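>> received
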Amino acid sequence: MSDYRLGDDIDDFCVRCKRIMNHSVVSVVNNEPAKVRCRTCHSDHDYRHEQAPPPKVDLRKQALFAEVLKKVSPDDPPPTTPAPTPAPAAPAPKPKSKGKARK
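>> returned
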């Protein structure tokens, strides 16, 4: 499709939904969509050409983690990214006891 018109359906990465979703073209500049509106959450944003934004990585935390690992086992090479730690399983909730019936 070479010419886009207002209201046309187009796939794009939604910043609110964090997925590639169906969008409507809201504005067009030089026959290319400039702004789009998500048809799921109705948020407006710039057209991203179906590209997700790069992940946000805190380089200081990564460097500190590599330093700690180096002290723990100096023979192993430091990993490039820290491995995610599994979340502990939540204990099963205890059923509430119904107090003694009053007479």
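>> The chain is about 15% helix and 25% strand.
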